[in-house]
Amino acid sequence: MQKYIIEPIKELNGEIEVDGAKNGILPIMAATLLSTEPCKIHRVPSLKDVSVMVEIIRHIGAKVDRDSSNMTVNVPEIKANEAPYEYVSQMRSSFDVMGPLLARTGLARVPLPGGCAIGERPIDLHLKGFKALGATVEFGHGFVEARADKLIGTSIYLDFPSVGATKNIMMAATLAEGVTLIENAAKEPEIVDLAIFLNKMGAKISGSGTQTIRITGVKELKGCEHSTLPDRIEAGTFLIMGAMHKSNLLVKNVVPSHLKPVIAKLIECGIEIIEEDEGLRVKSSGKINPVDITTLPYPGFPTDLQAPFMSLLCLAEGNSTIVETVFENRFSHVSELNRMGAKIKIDGHSARITGVEKLQGADVKATDLRAGAALVLAALVAEDATTIHEIHHIDRGYNDLETKLKKLGIHISRI
Length: 415
Ligand code: UD1
Known about the structure:
Layout: E1 3-6, E2 11-17, H1 22-31, E3 39-42, H2 48-60, E4 63-67, E5 70-74, H3 85-88, H4 98-105, E6 107-111, H5 124-132, E7 136-140, E8 143-147, E9 155-157, H6 163-173, E10 179-183, H7 189-200, E11 204-206, E12 212-216, E13 225-227, H8 232-243, E14 246-252, H9 260-268, E15 272-275, E16 279-285, E17 292-294, H10 306-313, E18 319-323, H11 332-339, E19 343-347, E20 350-354, E21 363-365, H12 369-381, E22 386-389, H13 392-395, H14 401-407, E23 412-414
Parallel strand pairs: 2-14, 3-13, 9-10, 17-18, 21-22
Antiparallel strand pairs: 1-22, 1-23, 3-5, 4-5, 6-8, 7-8, 10-12, 11-12, 14-16, 15-16, 18-20, 19-20
Helix pairs in contact: 1-2, 1-7, 4-6, 5-6, 6-7, 10-12, 11-12
The structure holds uridine-diphosphate-N-acetylglucosamine.
The site of uridine-diphosphate-N-acetylglucosamine (UD1) has 23 residues, from α1, α5 and α6.
C-alpha cells in the first residue's frame, strides 16, 4: 500500500496542465471494439483505470499500442466475449464493453462491476436498454450475460440520466437495425465526445448533449482518429486547489463551458476566475465565503467535485451546506477531513460544514478517488505534514499528480 506525505504550502503561483479525461477515454476504448479497423487516440492520460481497460480489451482481442499519450487499438477479431473478473472488479466503467460486445457479436458476458464504493450503483438502466433493443439478459455465477441474434432500434426512457447507461445503450445502438431514441439521456461532455468518436467511426448519432439522443443504426463501423477531451474534474480540482490558497494559478487545457457550475460557485466564494487563451486563471486572497451546493447530473454541479469542494468550504468564513443527490454514499471523506480538524456534520444526504481557521496534518485514508483528491487539497493547507494512505484510489484518476504538484513547489512524496 503506497501513501503520500504532503507538506503544506503558503502560496500557489505558476501553471498546471490538465490531461485527457479519464471518463472520456474509457468508453472510447470500449467503443473501439465495435470495428475491425484500427483507431488512433491521442491525449490518452496515463492512469491506472486506462491500464485496466487496456487489459480488458486485450483479453477480448484488441491489439493495443501505446506511445506516450498516443494509443492505437485494433480489434480484427473478437477472441473472447467476456471481460475478466480480476479487472472488472477494479473499475465500474469496465461495464462499458458490454454494449459494444453485444452489438458486434450478439453475446457479451461481463462480471458485475466494481469501482469506487460510493453507493449501490446498480446497472438496471443499462440492462433495460439492452433488453429494449431485443437482447435477453441473464445473471449467473457473478456474471451478466446479454444475447441477441440482432438488435433492433427502439425508444428507451431512462428513469435517471445515467452516464453509464447512456454510453452503453448508445454504443449498442450504433449497429442496431433502425432508429433508437434514448430519452432522458445523460448530457455530460464525455457523452458528447463519445458520440463524436462514434460518428467519426461512421455511426449516425444526433442530439448528444441534449436529453434525447437519436441513433440510426449502420451495418458496420470503421477506424478513426480522435483526441480525448480535457478532464473537467481534474481541471476543477486544480481550480479549487488554487482557491484554497493565496494564489495566482493558471490551469491550462480547460474547456470553461464544461465547468460552469464550478466556476459559478468559486466566484460566489469570492474567488477570481479569469478566462485566458491558454486556460483559466484562479486568483485568491485565501479568504473564502461560505456557499451552498447541490450535486446534480450535468450541467448541474458535478458529484465528482463534491469532495474537493468540501475541503475548500472547511476554510470558509461561516456555514455551508452540500447536498449530494447523485450517489447515496459519497461522504466517506467527511470523517477523514474531521480528523484534520474540520467541522462537518452529516444528516442523510446533506453535509453541514462550519468553517474553521486551520486544518491540522494527520494520518488519513483515501477511501475513493475523489475523496483522495479532497484530502490532497486539505493537506496542502494544513498546519503541518499529512500522510494520506491508500493512494491507489488517487492513481485511478489523476495523471502524474506528484510531478504536477512538485512543479508548483509543493513537497509531496510517495512512500
Ligand atoms: C459516471 C462517472 C462518475 C460520475 C458519475 C455521475 C465514469 C467512468 N464515471 O459514473 O465519475 O461520478 O458518472 O456523474 O464516467 N444508476 C442506477 N441504475 C443504473 C445506472 C446508474 O440507478 O443502471 C444510478 C447510480 O446508482 C447513481 C446514479 O444513477 O446513483 C448515477 O450513475 P451514473 O450516471 O450511471 O454514473 P456512472 O456511469 O457510474
